[in-house]
C-alpha cells in the first residue's frame, strides 16, 4: 500500500493551495483548519495526481 506524506515546511496550506485535496480521486486528504491532512491513506491507489498538482513538491507518495 502506498504511503502519503506532506512536508509542512513547504506545503502552502489549505487556503492558499489545497490542490492535493481538490484533485485526489480517492479523497485521501481532508482540510483541518488551515492544513491539508492525510486522512484516508488506506484509500490511496498510488495514482500520483497529488504529486503532479502540488506546486511545491510537499506531497510524496511512496511504495514499500
Ligand atoms: S496518489 Fe492518487 S489516490 Fe493517492 S493520495 Fe495522491 S492523488 Fe490520492
Ligand atoms: S498540493 Fe502541495 S502545497 Fe498544496 S496543499 Fe497539497 S501538499 Fe500543500
Automatic annotation (TrEMBL):
Q: In its keyword annotation, does this UniProt entry include Membrane?
A: no
Q: Which UniProt keywords apply?
A: 4Fe-4S, Iron, Iron-sulfur, Metal-binding
Q: Which InterPro entries match?
A: 4Fe4S_Fe-S-bd (IPR017896), 4Fe4S_Fe_S_CS (IPR017900), Fe-S_Ferredoxin (IPR050572)
Query: Is Iron-sulfur tagged as a keyword?
Result: yes
Domain (4Fe-4S ferredoxin-type) spans 2-33, 34-64
Q: Which GO terms describe its molecular function?
A: 4 iron, 4 sulfur cluster binding; metal ion binding; oxidoreductase activity
UniProt-listed PANTHER family: 4FE-4S FERREDOXIN-TYPE DOMAIN-CONTAINING PROTEIN (PTHR43687:SF5), ADENYLYLSULFATE REDUCTASE, BETA SUBUNIT (PTHR43687)
Stated name of the protein: 4Fe-4S ferredoxin iron-sulfur binding domain-containing protein
Organism of origin: Methanothermococcus okinawensis (strain DSM 14208 / JCM 11175 / IH1)
List the top taxonomic levels of the source: Archaea, Methanobacteriati, Methanobacteriota, Methanomada group, Methanococci
Amino acid at each position: 500500500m502506498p504511503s502519503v506524506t506532506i512536508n509542512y515546511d513547504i506545503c502552502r496550506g489549505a487556503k492558499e493551495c489545497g490542490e492535493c485535496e481538490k484533485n485526489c480521486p480517492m479523497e485521501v486528504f481532508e482540510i483541518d483548519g488551515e492544513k491539508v491532512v492525510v486522512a484516508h491513506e488506506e484509500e490511496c491507489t498510488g495514482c500520483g495526481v497529488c504529486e503532479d498538482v502540488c506546486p511545491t513538491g510537499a506531497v510524496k507518495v511512496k511504495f514499500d
